[in-house]
Design brief:
This protein has about 375 residues and is of the alpha+beta class. The chain has three domains: about 190 residues, 3-Layer(bba) Sandwich (FAD/NAD(P)-binding domain); about 90 residues, 2-Layer Sandwich (D-Amino Acid Oxidase, Chain A, domain 2); about 35 residues, no CATH class. It is built from ten helices and 18 strands. Strand 13 and strand 14 form a beta hairpin. Helix 1 runs parallel beside helix 3. The longest helix has 29 residues.
Length: about 375
């Protein structure tokens, strides 16, 4: 997204991809809202959609179910993607806008001159080279070394990290049009998920809060136990496995410096409550590309000039991130008993008609201990 919109703005763009194939290996549960795609100018394409999703099933620790249909007038709420194909689609758009793509080109360092970022050191197909640039956009994900090398503070507390493991499984008997979220001690400080991909296949995984991990390989133990505990899953076959981490922090303190910007997961704009990052990666990528092109045209890529990008994403996203982070902070310490009560408190409501104050009142009546004295 950053490469496309920078190129659309007239910038001369090089997109560096450290892998041999765009979009692979996959590290994503692949769920995204239809409305959120349309917001950033992307029309859904069957070529990169695995399943159309019409709602979400929330399952409490003891098995109580809250089923929320989020569709209106017969329009599906979202999709589970073929993420590797989706990423290739985005790269094709960037190339069509004029961006040059270099494969197997990993950034191994940042070039600075007089305290300003002026390019990157790259290992390309086994050889080292320098690439000079007026502006560098770090869109290299959760681990983003580029942003850190450039002096941006990307540090995370263990309580703001989820360590995740996911299997692609086949032979499952699940509801094909509903994503499922399972709460509670099956995934301490996080949740387990089942995201259908059609024909009895699904992404089945979980995330555990970093501060609650006490031993190596714990995510696999919890995931295997979760699968074994569910008759719909235990006979399934594992086709692929992917591991990684996501941040659950409401953005980094500052996402720009002289000649540098961070976008997407590198800027910690993942939803802290759900761990979902596709939507905000698309949004911040577009903003970063547009601001980079504009600042280059003006001949000013200083931190002060690039701060327009930081202000832009904060005005649109930061309040939402902070609300989700506060909810996450409450959620991670909820007992299984409280989570059971919450699902029971709201499961019979009509969510298409329900007002937020009514939902809060129902939850408060069932679990007053969550709301203090006020």
């Amino acid at each position: 997204m950053a490469a496309k919109h920078a190129a659309d703005g007239g910038a001369d763009v090089i997109l560096l991809e450290k892998k041999a194939e765009i979009g692979a290996p996959l590290r994503c549960a692949e769920g995204v809202s239809k409305r959120r795609l349309l917001e950033v100018g992307i029309d859904p394409d069957p070529r990169w959609i695995s399943a159309r999703i019409s709602g979400t099933i929330m399952r409490s620790p003891s098995g109580n179910i809250l089923k929320v249909r989020e569709c209106q007038e017969g329009s599906e709420v979202g999709y589970v993607l073929n993420r590797h194909l989706f990423d290739k689609f985005l790269a094709e758009r960037a190339a069509a806008s004029g961006a040059k793509i270099m494969m197997r080109a990993g950034c191994v360092g940042v070039i600075t001159e007089d305290g300003k970022v002026s390019g990157v050191n790259v290992r390309h197909m086994g050889s080292e080279k320098e690439i000079r640039a007026r502006c560098v956009i770090a869109a290299d994900g959760y681990e983003s070394q580029t942003a850190r090398w450039a002096g941006l503070d990307t540090d995370l507390d263990p309580s703001d990290i989820e360590t995740c493991l996911q299997y692609l499984m086949s032979g499952l008997e699940i509801e094909e049009s509903f994503c499922e979220i399972v709460l509670g001690s099956c995934a301490p400080g996080g949740y387990a998920w089942i995201f259908p991909k059609g024909n009895g296949t699904a992404n089945v995984g979980l995330g555990i809060q970093g501060s609650k991990c006490v031993s190596e390989g714990e995510a696999k133990v919890f995931l295997d136990n979760f699968i074994e505990s569910d008759p719909r899953l235990r006979k399934g076959k594992v086709l692929a496995m992917v591991a990684g981490a996501v941040s659950t922090k409401p953005g980094i303190s500052c996402s720009v410096g002289d000649g540098i910007m961070a976008a997407g997961d590198a800027a910690r704009v993942i939803n802290p409550l759900t761990g979902g990052g596709i939507r905000n990666a698309l949004r911040t990528g577009r903003m970063a590309g547009e601001v980079a092109a504009d600042c280059i045209r003006k001949g000013d890529v200083s931190k002060d000039s690039l701060m327009e990008y930081d202000r832009m994403w904060r005005s649109e996203i930061e309040d939402e991130l902070l609300r989700s982070w506060r909810m996450k902070e409450k959620y991670v310490d909820m007992s299984d008993d409280i989570l059971d009560k919450l699902i029971l408190a709201v499961r019979d409501y009509d969510f298409e008609r329900l007002r937020g104050d009514e939902l809060k009142a129902a939850a408060k009546a069932m679990c007053p201990e969550l709301f203090g004295s006020k």
